[in-house]
Design goal:
The protein is α+β, with helices and mostly antiparallel strands. The protein has 25 helices and 19 strands. The strands form five sheets. Strands 2-1-6-3-4-5 form a six-stranded mixed β-sheet, with helices on both faces. A hairpin with a 2-residue loop joins β18 and β19.
């Protein structure tokens, strides 16, 4: 069965921790993690509630394959209503925390209410208690992790916590675990801090002993690992270069946005690419990339561990940042680099360290700084707003300075902490916010790559590549090659990717496996682990059910088809040069086809027959 069948409910207002049985009827419809926790959220939270008020709930959830021998089975998610978007939020993280929570015997933790004072939750197998975190409030995520390990003297304890940016109310703060893994998007860390919950520390000794068919599961997971090892992307490219292998690829095909998506194609891409990370430095002969790293149970090991040149201006007098830590991955390198016009690899690595240390989403942060840079260059804001910093595209010095302010909540930080939508609205330039539903775009320009634009526009959590990674097909030819600039068939392609990803997220697996695995690789693992019928068809229907359920939450929160849109820049301003010159995104052609493929009405609503078919 692979579920522990236990939920930990933590009432922060009362200071109580109680165990309750998992709703197995829901588990058989929504599987786990993203799907099952979103079902609990939908049933227990008013979608119109204040995301930062006590009526919002925050759920940390594992999947049935989390903590098992399935490759990449170390994932967990944080689910709540987003303070950045007002939509449903589900942010996925790797590392070791999720597996440890499962080893302690819990499928998920539901946090409700708000504590009067800062607290942390200590879980030791089936024992859970809230303890004072007043000594940790005001500390970074790294410091908090160290304090908890020193306090409990258990090196195998795993910690998920928030940094100072969450405490300051930054709307896109992350929940950090294992120091450089993050439930990074949509402001889930901000919700955690709003409840005066600083950290969750967990130690589990139980292991996973409840797989439904152990022999079949071992066979299915071994087959899956062989497929990953033999695949060029998961067996070679990602271990060697990480997601950063995409930097030069996407730039070369005319799909890399730059300078707040004003341009497509970044002349500095090669300086911040995977290849550049592996090059020895002139100063000490060492490369930026120290080694790769893996999350629990992962046979891909795409993580980056990096160092900054100790002579670089950003860390020259800061020895605490001269050791190895979490390095740049593609989305962060793009948002912090190409989108701001900065091609200084050491400066970007240092800024990424600060994002990890204090827990802010580097995609939204970089994109928000990029919007501020465009406003600075066109005269909308000046040094009076930025505290004397010349916040221009391409200035590594300015970017480092504003980030060091940001993590302490000083100066322009309050404005940057709003995210680009509210920032640009404040200064009456809403057209400069590159967002969907209030969340910033990832690293693929939808003018050059049509399908990803439709995926962005229809994503339930706002602009996101991980809610339907059509780049796999449109750029990499996985599982089949589709043309980037064609709109035909993109509605069906996007739906298929969205449904499959919802299932993968809910199982407790990493979406990167889908570079090699199809549902015929994934379903046998779920079917062997869990009781019930988890055929390919049922798995895909589960993914579709989850997608529609999230859409219903958003509808109740006030979202309509008018929110399935892209910024005018991407619909009207053509790409100026390069392989995709002259293109805009043709969302108007694809959106009606997408609604039809989903079985929705022409105005994007879910009719009764679709609800009944999916048991919603």
């Amino acid at each position: 069965m692979s579920w522990t069948r236990k939920i930990l409910r933590v009432d922060l207002s009362k200071g109580s921790c109680t165990s309750e049985p998992l709703n197995m009827e829901w588990a058989k419809l929504y599987l786990g993690q993203r799907g099952l926790a979103s079902k609990y959220l939908s049933e227990e939270v008013d979608p119109k509630c204040d995301a930062l008020g006590p009526d919002n709930k925050m759920i940390m959830a594992t999947g049935p394959l989390t903590g098992t021998m399935a490759s990449t089975g170390g994932r967990y998610s944080v689910i709540c209503k987003s303070p950045l978007t007002g939509a449903i939020a589900c942010s996925n993280s790797g590392g070791f925390f999720g597996a440890e929570l499962k080893f302690a015997g819990w499928d998920m933790i539901i946090f409700e209410g708000k504590s009067d004072k800062p607290v942390y939750l200590l879980i030791q197998d089936d024992k859970a208690e809230l303890r004072s975190a007043e000594g940790m409030w005001g500390k970074s995520a790294w410091e908090t992790d160290d304090i908890l390990h020193q306090t409990h003297q258990d090196p195998q304890m795993r910690v998920a916590c928030v940094g100072r940016t969450a405490e300051h109310g930054c709307l896109y703060a992350a929940v950090m675990n294992d120091k450089h893994r993050a439930a990074g998007r949509s402001g889930v860390g901000t919700v955690m801090a709003s409840k005066n919950l600083k950290a969750v520390a967990v130690r589990g000794t139980g292991g996973i002993g409840n797989v439904n068919d152990a022999k079949a599961f071992m066979a299915a997971t071994n087959d899956g690992k062989a497929v990953l090892a033999e695949n060029a992307v998961t067996g070679q490219g990602l271990p060697a270069y990480g997601t950063q292998v995409l930097m030069n690829v996407i730039n070369g095909i005319g799909g890399l946005p730059a300078r707040n998506m004003r341009d497509v194609g970044f002349e500095g891409a090669e300086h911040i690419s995977a290849e550049a990370m592996a090059e020895p430095r002139k100063s000490d002969g060492k490369p930026n990339l120290t080694t790769n790293g893996a999350c629990f149970g992962c046979t891909i090991a795409c993580g980056r561990i990096s160092t900054v040149d100790p002579t670089h201006f950003s860390v020259k007098d800061k020895p605490q940042y001269q050791g190895a830590s979490g390095g740049l991955e593609y989305e962060a390198a793009w948002a912090l680099g190409a989108d701001t016009g900065v091609d200084d690899l050491d400066a970007l690595t240092y800024i990424n360290f600060l994002c990890n240390e204090d827990g802010m989403d580097p995609i939204t942060y970089g994109a928000t700084v990029a919007a501020a840079m465009e406003m600075f260059e066109d005269g909308t804001i000046g040094t009076a707003e930025t505290g004397g910093i010349e916040l221009r595209f391409g200035s590594a010095e300015a970017f480092v300075a504003i980030t060091e302010q940001f993590v302490t909540g000083e100066g322009f930080a309050k404005d940057l902490g709003l995210g680009s939508k509210q920032l640009c609205e404040k200064y009456k330039r809403p057209e400069l916010s590159m967002t969907v539903k209030g969340q910033e775009f990832p690293a693929y320009d939808p003018r050059g790559i049509q399908g990803i634009g439709l995926a962005y526009a229809t994503s339930n959590r706002g602009a996101c590549h991980l809610r339907g990674y059509t780049i796999a097909s449109e750029v990499l030819g996985i599982p089949v090659k589709t043309e980037m600039n064609d709109t035909d068939g993109k509605a069906e392609l996007v739906k298929a990717f969205q449904d499959a990803t919802a299932l993968v997220d809910s199982a407790g697996l990493c979406v990167f496996t889908t570079f090699a695995w199809g549902m015929d690789n994934i379903a046998p693992q779920v079917d062997a682990a869990c009781e019930g019928d988890w055929s390919v068809e049922n798995c895909l229907e589960t993914g579709e059910r989850i997608w529609n359920m999230e859409r219903l939450f958003n509808e109740a929160a006030g979202f309509t088809a008018d929110d399935d849109k892209l910024p005018k820049r991407l619909l009207e301003e053509v790409i100026k040069h390069g392989p995709t010159e002259g293109q805009v995104n043709r969302l108007g052609e694809m959106l009606p086809q997408y609604y039809e493929a989903r079985g929705w009405t022409a105005d994007g609503k879910i009719p009764d027959e679709t609800r009944q078919r999916l048991a919603l």
